[in-house]
Predict the structure.
Amino acid sequence: MDITHINIDRRPELERPVLIAGFTGWNDAADAASVAVGALASSWEARRFGGFDGEEFFDFQTTRPQVKLVDGVTREIEWPENLLSATEPMLEAAGGRGAILLTGPEPNFRWRAFSTAVVELAKALNVELVVTMGALLADVPHSRPVSVAANSQDTTLVESLGLSASRYEGPTGITGVLHRACADGGLPSVSFWASVPHYLPAVPSAPAALALLDKLSGLLGMKVDTSDLESTAETYQEQVSVAVSQDSDLSSYVRMLEERFDSEADQGPRNLPSGDELAQELEGFLREQRHDEE
């Protein structure tokens, strides 16, 4: 398997795989997406099989290499890289479905070439669905459930799964470019975006990561061990609540956000179908896709 800009160490053998991507940087408010994908890698014991050529996609003055000590003596350099890992054949991620994880910093250069390479890799490995996870800063309170939007640029997938067609206009990140490339390449894709409190931009949000994984689980009908993340989320809520209570201005602001959140919730916002329903609908959609290709 020879794909431009990707160094492949081995070809993973996967059954009905899904490719899940999460990038650090602009697309990853409060580290929610990268924490979520890290939890997937740990739960599924995903093993590296390749990576992108960092020389092609990174500005090393912006995304700098890191010097590491090995055994307290040897100095090694870790270069910025987008890593590819995959589940093992006997440890399929979602009820017999394999998974490929794409992680690392948002590239600095050549987004179109990067996205084209991802689509080529996905097709070479017979990926049935691409899912990206991201997070954005929003006017939401930390004390309420995390809102996650699910959308797609694939009109058939939008209709089949009851997702939203994104109406966002403005600056985009690598996830937006990647979804456009998937749509142009005829590869179904879904994007999940978690909303995190804008007054906590530098605090890694375990609750938002959990919310992303919950939506992903509902879509794929899969299981993820989130016990460690759940414990971290509880600690997050406790510590943030204490910090907010000690600042009268911030406390008043959070109460205002809570009131607005509760008011909007009372209006009955449109939700995704239940997890089981969504998983069944996705399976039906992908079966039709496979049948059309035969």
Notes: Residues 82 and 104 are 4 Å apart (CA to CA). The chain has one domain: 6-293. The first helix runs from residue 32 to 44.
